[in-house]
Amino acid sequence: MATGTQPQPNTSSTGSTSKPPDAPGTGGVLTGTRAAIAERHLRTDRWWLSPAMTALGLFAFIVYSTWRAFANTDYYHAPYVSPFYSPCLAESCEKMQGGPNWALFGEWWPLSPALIILIFPLGFRLTCYYYRKAYYRGFWASPPACAVAEPHKSYSGETRFPLILQNIHRYFFYAAVLVAVILTWDTLLGFRNPDYEWGHMGLGTLVFLVNIVLIWAYTLSCHSCRHIIGGRLKHFSKHPVRYRMWGLVGKLNGRHMELAWASLLSVGLADLYVYLLATGAFTDPQLF
Amino acid sequence: MSAETHAGEGAGTHTRPDAEQAEGTGTPGAVSGGAPDASGTSYIAQFRVWRGDIDGGGLEDFKVEVFEGEVVLDIVHRLQATQAPDLAVRWNCKAGKCGSCSAEINGRPRLLCMTRMSIFDRSEIITITPLRAFPVVRDLVTNVNYNYAKAREIPAFVPPQGLGPGEYRMQQEDVGRSQEFRKCIECFLCQDTCHVVRDHEENKQAFAGPRFLMRVAELDMHPLDAAEESGLDRKTTAQDEHGLGYCNITKCCTDVCPEGIKITDNALIPLKERVADRKYDPIVWLGNKIRRRT
After folding, report:
1. What is the pLDDT of residues A228-255, one digit of tens each?
2. Which one of B13, B145, B173 has the shortest CB-CB distance to A15?
3. Which residues of chain B have pLDDT under 70?
4. Which residues of chain A have pLDDT under 50?
């Protein structure tokens, strides 16, 4: 910027004047050296709509998924297993022929087996760069919207515990890839009929197919994936394959927000579909 | 403060009594609630402009004639020419390339010269204030020295050893990424909107802001930057000295960038991932150790 302004007298190294920064306002945009405007923001658009919708959407999913994760029932209806319960790692899991029954936790696990595996997709989404933006804005108002003053007196961002743990996102990404592989297998198992005969397809198979495509698209569009695939390189020209893959992931990454929401919705709908089948609300329409 | 004091504000800070004739916009726009012109291409807009200096000030109401195709900076110039000759505003190219006319319009950080009047409803009251993250100088002019101080803290490009001027050779795919960051016009709208410093003056010491973290990312991605070989680890210093950890990637910097640079997705998050490589990922750390030994 061409300032055309001579340095101010009494200017500190960061450009603030020597006047106490908090006088006479209370800090932030009300700091004494800044333009004296009493309002904390002057936005006239519906800036609150986006964080409100985000918070509402996330809250609705949290309520639904918490209920389903603790329910420990109605999560399997041959040949479909709810993505919330796959893989099922406790002895208490329903028996799923060819399905993801691996009783690694044995008989001692007293709670819903969903709680074991959901830690990983939950951690992946909780530390995801998009969801961080979403919940920082929607739930924590930090900031509620651009150029709208946040209500907090101090701010340390992701420099301290616990938010410094956001840096382990890549490990949740690795776990999410494994979970996605298992959910892919579950989707393949959906090409059976309720008698476990291959070569059939129901409406549920379509639901699971859409879900797994969105899950993979969301997982691969992750910023950590983009970095691991090629972003960390300094010389793309020496790694043409990784460069090309980085470009492809980059295109997906541009849709990360949309994919985050679409996959969140699809995973919830896939679970709901299994729940409705398991409770006998309707029978799965067979396509062939 | 007198109008003369204002006229000395800088190249772009002055009154222009002949503005309309020079720009061919037709009749002068000094109005007090008059009707649009006969051709129907103009209308009377209501503005609230912040006037004052570091000792205080407030929003003043104006009614100004607006013509088709104009931007907010045109209206500010008309105000200077007709109703507020001592109104201070910083501007230069009027083409969105110099980054001088940064201000806040209806509470949103924008370039005055790139904000078309046609995006506003004709009955809307348009509020113009100076950037609210920086100390005010006068009217719409702020002291942006914070940014220059932060710019000086970023170590410059380190030339590779053994290559003289004119001998640098780089592949396009190696420099493509950082070329996006070179589009920056240093309007400092991203610095202004970033809540880390906008809402917390105390963080200005520790946090470089999105513009300068983007500069660190640009240098760290530069194929010929030899900082690491010379003992300067840009990844570590991004976190430890330039405050990358303060960024909670809420993307306001990207939202306001007039050049459309994807600051968060292409600079800040990749830089956070590089920092994670260095400081928070034991496997990468171990891999690098083993690779160095072999």
Report:
1. 999 999 999 999 999 999 999 999 999 9
2. B145
3. 1-40, 292-294
4. 4-24
Contact B148 A223 (CB under 8 A): no
Chain A positions touching B190 (Cβ under 8 A) are none
> What single string gives the DSSP state of each residue in A165-178?
GGGGHHHHHHHHHH
Distance to chain A for B170, nearest Cα, Å: 9
Domains along chain B?
3-142 (3.10.20.30), 145-293 (1.10.1060.10)
**Omega into A79 within 30° of 0, i.e. cis?**
yes
Give the HSE-up count for residue A69: Cα atoms under 13 Å, Cβ half-sphere: 17
The predicted-structure confidence for B16-29, as pLDDT tens digits, reads as follows 333 333 343 434 44
Three-state SS for A11? strand
Q: What is the pTM of this model?
A: 0.88
User: CA–CA separation, A249 vs A255, rounded Å?
Assistant: 10
CA B193 to chain centre: 9
User: Chain A to chain B, count of Cβ pairs less than 8 Å apart?
Assistant: 230
Task: List CB contacts (< 8 A) between B100 and chain A.
Answer: 1-4
Q: Please answer yes or no on whether A36 and B56 come within 8 Å at the CB atom.
A: yes
Spatial distance between the Cα atoms of A151 and A200, rounded to a whole number of angstroms: 56
Which residues 6+ apart lie within 8 Å of A154 measured at CB? B200, B202
Is ipTM over 0.85?
yes
**Dihedral Cα A67, A73, A79, A82, nearest 10 deg:** 20
Question: Could you tell me the residue ranges of all domains in chain A?
Answer: 44-278
